[in-house]
Amino acid sequence: MSEVSYGMQCKDAFSYLEDSLKQLELRENKLRSFPIAIQVLSHLESLDLFGNEIKTVPDDLTFYLQSSLKRLKRLTLNYINCTCDFGKTDFATWIRSHAIKGVTCKTPHRLFGKDISVTPIEEFSKAIAYISKDAFSYLEDSLKQLELRENKLRSFPIAIQVLSHLESLDLFGNEIKTVPDDLTFYLQSSLKRLKRLTLNYINCTCDFGKTDFATWIRSHAIKGVTCKTPHRLFGKDISVTPIEEFCEYVSNSGHK
């Protein structure tokens, strides 16, 4: 096994092995980009990059990889960010067309662990941007858990209000920054069994801290609604964050 210095990638690191190396393991290192030195290993059949934070591979590098690594059967990568755009890249196309196993998605959550070689391109673009008002009407008396994470929702889906038996709602990764008071009125009237609501894009301003939504979350100890902004409140769970913390900066500024 050849040694590769931490934090360094030498373009000619494997030049003396180009006609012989069939298997190479570089797992659990600190690589953040695909090592360009690999392209000379024309006999390579298996490359293990598990645990390195390589989220994508640029098209220009893919051109050289697919020209030289014609014997590659397995490429282990597990940090891939499988966005819609990634699904259309030359790298993803190469992996699928040559059935190279081992490249799996880390994000988004709905694709976690999926092997790209057997995942149709359509799967990468399946994300919900809108939910009709009556989408869950036939489930109103039965649904207890609902996961809608990593979609493209920008407002709280009003269709949720009919789910009177709902105990857990996961909207993680959707850019929902607030919930209006008029919708909150219906939510707190109907979602009386709700114990967990996962939202992580909330803009926790002083005004937000005073909204009916924030008050409802705190008074009913509904876990999972966390602040994204401002930075000083990032990751704070609203259910256990006193209203004074939302306005702390404004209050302090007023005394200057």
TrEMBL record:
Keyword Repeat: yes
Pfam families: LRR_6
Alphabetically ordered keywords of this record: Leucine-rich repeat, Repeat
InterPro entries in the cross-refs: Leu-rich_rpt, Leu-rich_rpt_typical-subtyp, LRR_dom_sf, LRR_TM_domain-containing
Keyword RNA-binding found: no
Domain of life: Eukaryota
Annotated GO CC locations: plasma membrane
Record protein name field: Uncharacterized protein
Organism encoding this protein: Oppiella nova
Lineage, uppermost ranks: Eukaryota, Metazoa, Ecdysozoa, Arthropoda, Chelicerata
